[in-house]
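Contributing new records

If you add data, match the layout below exactly. Sequence lines come first and carry their own label; structure lines follow with theirs. Keep one chain per record. Anything else will be rejected by the validation script.
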Amino acid sequence: QVQLVESGGGLVQPGGSLRLSCAASGSIFNILTMGWYRQAPGKQRELVAHITPKGSTNYADSVKGRFTISRDNAKNTVYLQMNSLKPEDTAVYYCNAMPPIRDYWGQGTQVTISS
């Protein structure tokens, strides 16, 4: 069983940056492709970025060039560096395996972009 705990969210102005962290428990973390997802009010949850165990990455078009996903397998942690943030990036951000595993959803971390 894996437990995921997201952190690092907050309120920032447009153009600002945040770094999200997702700490995972469980020995299988290192073999999972991990993803960051987000859900804005009234919208479906969407995949923002994912990273394979060996570090290959992929991004949604809406964040490409602004967000960077990374992982530290020794620390069982995956990160999301978010730069040039826009109001439309406002959402609750979650990490999970990719494809997601229902039992792995955590509480997420709120990201709010507002002036």
